[in-house]
Specification:
Length: 362
């Protein structure tokens, strides 16, 4: 860009007029050695700016870099405050002590990490949020002139006599069952309605799958609880902490869809909820494991699965780079040691979880 004293002019020449005219100046700073030391100034797009993807131009100590955590944090603020403008344009220049910047995060030194990064991001987030909330009140909307539609010839339509009011159709009352998007007992809003009709061969497979699901459900629901005092104490602790309102929501909700990687949308009556699927699943699995403790039913495998191979699969699953052909000797050693340990605990595993392990480690 042409050398200029104004950064807005530089942004205008590189990114265009539509970006430059929708920018707001933003500043944040902190000079507390116990928490964070930094100074930030820049520009962020307002509520009138709409784009398909986020653009973040970040300079730290006058060097063009990337900071994924900061970019994600600002994007979250936009999505929560201005959903329509949730893909913003951000220009930020941050100045902080050189020793507070870690440039060895990425091989090309393009990605950086900051000392007290969480504190700095939180302060920038709060400034961005307050700026966006103030800007939302001054939002502008483009007007579009609507051409009048040609009027029909007078006296030729019988419909006009039957329905003299042009708004007659709007006065009809909406049926009550259509006021709520879905009903937990009759999930009309789910995707089943859009699935193609299946051929007879598929129907046969479905009936087989239904039989399998039925047998799994029978395994899932043992009538009696474990007679171990420790398990009974843990179960009663769960029951005493049960929230009746939440229980009703989880029991009678309808799944709408995933909002992102963690949160799911659930509908209960006329309310829409965001549910943390990760924590909800953990709690559900924990409670189910307690309820079924020492009363699990075995699933018979046609060919017993060898423990060493299963453990190796699990260890390789944790590899960051699956294509890396490094020495598998440490993993093999871990698999052998774990197999021997599980073989020693075979009696306990059989009694508590109905997992049969033979002398060969299958």
């Amino acid at each position: 860009s042409v050398a200029t004293s104004l950064r807005v002019d530089a942004i205008r020449s590189v990114y265009g007029v539509s970006v430059a005219r929708n920018l707001m100046k933003i500043e944040a700073s902190d000079n507390d050695p116990t928490s964070s030391v930094f100074k930030m100034d820049g520009f962020i797009s307002n509520s009138n700016y709409v784009a398909k993807k986020i653009t973040m131009v970040l300079f730290i100590n006058d060097r063009l870099v990337e900071c994924t955590a900061l970019k994600r944090a600002v994007e979250i603020v936009y999505a929560a405050t201005l959903p329509k403008a949730s893909k913003p344009f951000i220009y930020m220049s941050i100045v902080l002590p050189f020793e507070h910047v870690d440039v060895n995060v990425h091989p090309t030194k393009r990605e950086v990490s900051l000392l007290n990064q969480e504190v700095i991001i939180e302060k920038i987030q709060s400034v961005v949020e307050s700026k966006l909330r103030d800007s939302n009140e001054a939002r502008t909307f483009q007007e579009q002139t609507v051409r009048p539609s040609p009027s029909p010839p007078v006296g030729t339509s019988k419909d006009s006599q039957l329905n003299p009011s042009p708004f007659g159709s709007r006065s009809q009352k909406v049926p009550e069952h259509k006021l709520v998007r879905t009903d937990s007992l009759d999930p009309a809003g789910r995707l089943h309605a859009y699935l193609r009709v299946k051929s007879p061969s598929h129907l046969e497979k479905d009936s087989d799958m239904t039989a399998v699901r039925s047998s799994v459900r029978q395994r899932r629901n043992p009538k009696e609880t474990a007679d171990l005092t420790s398990i009974q104490e843990l179960t009663s602790e769960i029951d005493s902490n049960c929230h009746s309102g939440l229980l009703d929501i989880v029991r009678h909700c309808t799944y709408v869809g995933m909002a992102d990687d963690v949160f799911a949308l659930l509908q209960h009556k006329t309310h829409l909820y965001l549910a943390d699927v990760v924590n909800l699943s953990k709690e559900l699995m924990y409670q189910q494991a307690l309820r079924r403790f020492s009363h699990f039913n075995a699933i018979q495998l046609s060919d017993p699965a060898p423990l060493p191979e299963l453990i190796m699969l699990a260890l390789k699953e944790e590899d960051i780079d699956p294509e890396c052909n490094e020495n598998d000797d440490p993993k093999t050693k871990i698999a052998e040691m774990t197999t021997e340990l599980l073989k020693k605990k075979a009696e306990l595993l059989d009694e508590y979880f109905c997992i049969h392990i033979d002398t060969h480690g299958n």
